[in-house]
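Risk mitigation, structural track. In case the binding assays with iron/sulfur cluster fail to produce interpretable data, a predicted complex structure has been prepared as a fallback.
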Amino acid sequence: MKNINLKSLDKTGIEGFIRSLDLPRYRAHQLILRLYRHGAADMDELTEFSLGLRATIRDRAFISNLRLDDRVRSSDGTEKFLFGLEDDAAIEAVLIPEGGRRTLCVSSQVGCAMACRFCRTGALGLRRNLKAYEIVDQVIAVNRMIFPERVTNVVLMGMGEPLANCDEVIDALWRMVDFIGISKRRITVSTAGIVPGIAALSERAPEVNLAISLNATTDEVRNRIMPVNKRYPLRMLLGACRKFPLSRGRRITIEYVMMDGVNDFPEDARRLVTLLAGIRCKVNLIPLNPFPGCDFRRPPSERVLAFQAILMRHKVRTLIRESRGQDILAACGQLAAAREGGGS
Ligand code: SF4
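Fallback model:
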């Protein structure tokens, strides 16, 4: 066993590694805590292990770390981190402080194959899936940088479609909950609508929150702005939401990016009420934050307010949310896309 990346191992893998060193089982737990909760970046930080043991571990294994390539702070306090991977691909994470919360938006893929037309990452195409440890490493790296504060909430809404990388994402979710100690109630997976992935999430992942990036109320419009809808149309997607198990007090978040003259009509609001009947949910209306070269515009505020009023009249919980960090390209995928020259 040479050159094992310790972070590439899940719990069983770490236990096997510890066994291979003839060490007692509790050492596996110590190693996991050091790597994930304390964010050990190299063997010298494995302080529960003697110098001799650290040397033995170093002979057989290493600890991978994301490379920080850029860190930009917005005037509203949002911070964007651009990370380089071992193969020089770039991903990004965005930290959003809000009261006592520090929410980290993490990436699940390098680029994205979903090609949503209002998203800059969509224009990049998919380069590759992230490994579970590369997803979790975004949390570990940011925890190190903001110490003694810590990330309190995680949303998988950065670059990529999490449920198109289901196995690695589910592994990463378990590591966030079991290894880092983030409450499953404070983790949200957002999907453009990969229906089998929604079922897999309910069957195999910890009980995290689900967000659906819906953005249209007819298949005709959704096919146009989100090609994934041709495979998993609205009826199938909302059927999967109806089946998604929700424990007491939990709701699915419906994300609705509003685009001028595309999906912001009063008829859309009324159709949305009908579509969401029987789904315990809340709606986030997000006026589009257009990027250079984007085909769509932000709707006027009156249109957004009128849309919200219709939903609220029908007792649909609705919030208007602005994208944070607009001055640092903090919307989904924009910093990495700018670096890769995509989307504009
Ligand atoms: S919105 Fe999400 S799923 Fe759609 S292209 Fe962008 S990153 Fe991919």
